[in-house]
């Protein structure tokens, strides 16, 4: 049986397919208008590659499909969501239980659609009028979030019952009502409120995509397996057990879990994970073999006082538009506009006319126009040069190559700035850390960014880097997380913890059984979050005296099987047998002829000295002068600074 592990990004959709002793990688253009198109394109490619007569025949041998994406992130960033209404306590209309209303909320919540309601208000007609007013203003989803509702949610439940009574589900005018205490298991009123708003806003985009995908799999192709959705906690769950907010940034977050996996293999304490794709660059941190988290943060500027993975991004990718800006240090500006995959960079020949980062890299000779994406797409060098000349070189009155170099330097500064800021936020020094570079463009930037920041070692997984986040999904398990606040003023806190833990276990058993999994095969891990900062394992003798806030968290995990990347054959240090060609490449003002090394022919211990370009499958790695790359047993290209 096979498992299909998919990462749906903004530009490319990647798949890692495992089973029957085979490991296959696939990449197709993302289809934002309908993500099921990209899904079916991947399955078609896989079926054809494995010799099946069609998708249905292939799916008959597929046990699990794991799916992570940026759907919810994109909906939030691009402000594509329904009008949302909010009911709060009297006096909280402006601050929403925080120190001040975040301006980022204005993109998803019109201040006019916030209504204050007294929790003890039993005037049914007043409540009905308030709801009717929201609906007449175009609101399609209503959130209710009251202070203290985590401990006592009855007032929120009463509002939902009233709305459902007035607008029952069997009418087209039914109004979904989301309650704060159900959206975020935290005693923090602001976080519950913001979580409910985010979930209400991004839910339709995700639900439409996932249910359509599941319907096509089950009804068009008679598949009986499980479609699992990636959560930001690093685990998977079925659609019916997934909230939209659980999936925000799940694609890149699984890239961090992949980085943490290799950090454990190499026994490296701290790793900076750099993911550069077609639309954005993202940076995260793996520490002690796990993704680094922070207590409190924000999602696209919306604050949440909860534990979150440390993940930062900037609007710079291969498809980012490059424009002249004489006042900038590098005389150019990159993004935030992106050509995405359609029409894409000018060199795609699909109608894109703007100069992009990818076009500049084609002009500089960094990307093989014939072997791009394993030869699936031939790039038009002439179109790339024309776009760079028209939109960048002529306005700046420089040569095409000089303009492309200015764009490269600007892009490298943007990415290195992102990495440096992320390292500072994590409390580490970039110069003392290793970096893992992945995504379609990460290895192209690796040595440039490392030179700027003084990083002396960068790892590039040639076998997995193009689909690194998909690999992260492939090593994930079914995971459900349950949380409950503990009243620390109780005399017997130990008994309270045991009672709450039993309640959470029963919820976990119910959910796992509903998904068809054996609860006796699951593992359970309990921990306490103290005062919203420190997290400790739950032990037999817990003392809560003097602690103001305690959150009990139970993590239920059901294993789906493990996967370990294959080791490769060991050779000597020479790479001459893998040199397939030579090409003129611009690192500075003049072209330099460099060797083009075919990674698929390299063996463990083979070493490539820069300047050189190493390419293989869907990946291109640029090795600048002053760097070497040695292949290790995992097929990882270990880039080292020569003078380090």
How would you explain this protein's 3D organization?
- The chain is α/β, with parallel strands linked by helices and 644 residues long.
- α9 (357-363) crosses α10 and α10 crosses α11 (400-426).
- It is globular.
List keywords for this structure.
14 helices; 644 residues; single chain; globular; six-stranded mixed β-sheet; alpha/beta
Question: Would you identify the regions where 5 or more consecutive residues have pLDDT less than 50?
Answer: none
Task: Assign a percent range to the helix content.
Answer: 25-40%
Strand content: 25-35%
Taking the alpha carbons of the first and last residues, their distance comes to: 46 Å
Main sheet properties: 9 strands, mixed
* Secondary-structure class: alpha/beta
Mean pLDDT: 88
Number of strands: 31
Number of helices: 14
Q: Looking at the structure, what is the overall shape?
A: globular
Rg, Cα atoms, Å: 26 Å
Quick recap:
The chain is 31% helix and 28% strand.
Topology of this structure?
Elements lengths: L1 E7 L3 E8 L2 E8 L5 H15 L5 H5 L2 E8 L1 H7 L6 E5 L25 E3 L7 H13 L4 E4 L9 H13 L10 E3 H4 L5 H32 L5 E5 L5 E3 L11 H17 L3 E7 L4 E7 L2 E2 L1 E7 L2 E8 L1 E4 L5 E5 L7 E7 L18 H7 L17 H16 L3 H27 L7 E5 L3 H12 L3 E5 L6 H7 L3 E9 L6 H22 L8 E8 L3 E4 L12 E9 L20 E8 L4 E8 L8 E3 L2 E5 L2 E5 L3 E5 L4 E6 L3
Parallel strand pairs: 1-4, 4-9, 5-6, 5-7, 7-8, 11-19, 19-20, 26-28
Antiparallel strand pairs: 1-2, 2-3, 9-10, 11-12, 12-13, 12-16, 14-15, 17-18, 20-31, 21-24, 22-23, 22-24, 25-26, 27-30, 28-29, 30-31
Helix pairs in contact: 3-7, 4-5, 8-13, 9-10, 9-11, 10-11, 11-12
